[in-house]
Amino acid sequence: MSEKYDVIVIGSGPAGYVAAIRAAQLGLKTACIEKWRNEEGKGVNGGTCLNVGCIPSKALLDSSYKYHEAKDDFKIHGITTKGIEIDVPSMIARKAQIVKQLTGGIAALFKANGVTGLYGTGKLLAGRKVEFTDNEGKTSVLEADNVILASGSSPINIPVAPVDNKVIVNSTGALEFDSVPKRLGVIGAGVIGLELGSVWNRLGSQVVVLEALDSFLAMMDQQIAKEAQKILTKQGLDIRTSCRVTGSEVKGNEVVVTFTDKDGKEQKETFDKLIVCVGRRPYTEGLLAADSGVNLDERGFIYVNDLCSTNAPGVWAVGDVVRGPMLAHKGSEEGVMVAERIAGQKTVMNYDIIPNVIYTHPEVAAVGKTEEQVKAAGEPYNVGTFPFAASGRAMAANETQGLVKIIAHAETDRILGCHIVGPSAADLVQQVAIAMEFGSSAEDIGMMVFGHPTLSEAIHEAALAVHGHAIHIANKKKR
Ligand code: FAD
Ligand code: AMP
User: Fold this and answer.
1) Is the CB of 319 inside a 6 Å radius of any atom of ligand 1?
2) DSSP string covering 385-435, please?
3) Strands lying side by side in the sheet with 356-358
4) What pLDDT shows up at residue 3?
5) Angstrom distance (rounded) from CA 371 to CA 283
6) How confident is the model at residue 478 (pLDDT cuts 50, 70, 90)?
7) By CB count within 10 A, which of 40, 77, 84, 445 is most buried?
């Protein structure tokens, strides 16, 4: 007889491991299957996020920013530094240690919560059965009342720049350089391209970012995107929009990249390394038997409804492998929702309030609708902005670039969106996200007491500015 579980989760990224832990907390007999192996060939949990995504990229962003600060920023505080150097292998080793600690932590959390962690590959068969092939190649069939598919995503490859993991790399390879490339090309000015470009730019690479679209960060609020572009350009990122890469040729240790520029003219640039960051696609390779009964949509995502239920009874899917933003926290919350639904609870998820961050310095963060989206929907609205240049705390920290923007409905005053480029934007935007979850108006935030001096005061002031009541800037609108 095959082993029977209440829940089998396939994939232990932030969507899968969170679903498994929550299911086990609710008393469900749960197993989580993971096929990722580390460099030593050992099975590890954590998926893209912990192994080659959110965490290692932030480790390198933080290391590279400290180097930049020590080298270029300390002097304004009266601190003299000499002989500042970057030891790239040590920086990469620190990152690897953090990854090891966190991925190991998931195994410990599984143990603490009673989740059975299985290392190997899972394949969904018909009738909620899962074929499990362990890392030694031994196959067995497991059964479950519910199966949660959380197989994640993988980088998109483009034929015009095939990854060779030597000169042309994807985001994973860009976390492993053993020295600072002199000239670095990045294809795609998305979140990942800007973060990885920033890491190596801070360490001394001349970085050129080639982006096919005409506008920079097209999906973001354009006032914020323009400000971010200005700041990043000043830092040395050579961001070229309307530039579509059409070919590449590796010559020894270099790559010659061909692209069409904004006038449609063919151009060439030579780089020591090229990072391909043109997006990610859902990963379902080997996941579904032909008769699993699970449908994919036209873009290859597993088709699910609002509750993450697939069209096969008892089969759910969460995270990057289903529609919606490819963000770790989005997948985690879907994992919680599904586990609680399986346990009989009525949990739903609010897809309208999912914060989104680019971890450049300063950070770019957003929640809710952009001004362009509000305008396109024909909703009447007011906008309040507050620049960090007017914040005492930002000035004390020498972090005065950027602004907070709050958009509120003109009739109900309900906050529709908040967009920030500035210091600690990721943490600041979460404050507004919490307020939005409680249906807050701009006036509500304006009436709250904010600690002084804090960066959070910029949120207070932007909320006040929605009605022309900001104290520390001249208001555009007076009431
Ligand atoms: P994944 O994390 O991709 O995990 C899926 C897991 O399923 C993998 O471990 C895979 O091995 C396993 N699997 C697949 N098929 C099978 C199978 N058949 N059997 C067994 N196991 C299987 N998001 C953020 O929110 N914030 C960030 O700062 C951020 N930074 C990023 C930086 C980079 C460089 C990258 C690449 C991504 C970043 N992301 C970030 C995105 C984030 O990593 C993903 O949204 C998140 O990892 C998706 O979680 P997931 O659980 O759906 O899938
Ligand atoms: P994201 O999906 O946010 O990771 O961003 C990927 C970016 O890569 C998008 O903005 C695309 O427009 C861009 N992109 C895709 N293909 C090309 C290409 N051939 N040349 C330049 N940019 C590209």
Assistant:
1) yes
2) EEEGGG-HHHHHTT----EEEEEEETTT-BEEEEEEEETTHHHHHHHHHHH
3) 356-358, 363-368, 415-422, 403-409, 381-387
4) 82
5) 33
6) low
7) 445
211 lines ligand 2 (CB under 6 A): yes
Catalytic residue of the set 452, 467, 469, 472: 452
Read off the pLDDT of residues 405-414 as tens digits, 9 standing for 90 and up.
Answer: 999 999 999 9
The residue with tokens 């959110």 is 54
Q: Looking at residues 174-199, what average pLDDT do you find? A: 98
Contacts of residue 296, defined as CB under 8 A and 6 or more positions apart, other chains included, come to 282, 284, 302, 303
Domains and CATH numbers, the chain: 4-155+281-342 (3.50.50.60), 168-278 (3.50.50.60), 362-465 (3.30.390.30)
Sign of the dihedral through C-alpha 103, 107, 108, 109? positive
> Per the structure block, which two tokens stand in for 94?
């620190």
Give yes or no for residue 333 CB within 6 A of ligand 1. Answer: no
Task: Give 290 Cα–ligand 1 centroid separation in angstroms.
Answer: 24
Q: For 24-74, how does the pLDDT look when each residue is reduced to its tens digit (9 = 90+)?
A: 999 999 999 999 999 899 999 999 999 999 999 999 999 999 999 999 999
- Which residue from 163, 211, 262 has its CB within 8 A of the most atoms of ligand 2, so it is best to mutate? 211
Name the pTM for this structure. Answer: 0.97
Ligand at minimal distance from the CA of 187 is 2
The residue behind tokens 């390779």 is 285
> What is the model's pLDDT at position 286?
98
Is 472 a residue of the active site?
Answer: no
From the CA of 219, which ligand is nearest? 2
- CA atoms within a 13 Å half-sphere pointing along the CA-CB vector of 170: 15
